[in-house]
Write a structure and sequence with these properties.
Length: 80
């Protein structure tokens, strides 16, 4: 199974945060991505504010985890 993964947000911010503080870049990558392959499409989106999520990753990581749980990640699958 090969999946082609796409990030649907701003690459500028991912690269910026990957250089200065890697955990923020990882969280941003989690917030809006999709993958296609084997006749399936998987889409994952964060329902809350990406700014506040990144802010709390910088300041106090456990609050960012609470935001992820509270606002939730929506994962949809469909046939291509």
């Amino acid at each position: 199974m090969n999946y082609r993964v796409h990030y649907e947000g701003s690459w500028f911010w991912v690269i910026f945060w990957a250089i200065f503080f890697f955990p923020v870049a990882l969280v941003l990558l989690l917030t809006k991505w999709s993958a296609e392959g084997s006749g399936k499409r998987i889409v994952c989106e964060y329902n809350g504010s990406r700014f506040w999520l990144g802010f709390w990753v910088l300041l106090f990581f456990p609050i960012a985890i609470i935001l992820l749980i509270n606002c939730g990640l929506r994962v949809d699958t469909s046939a291509v």
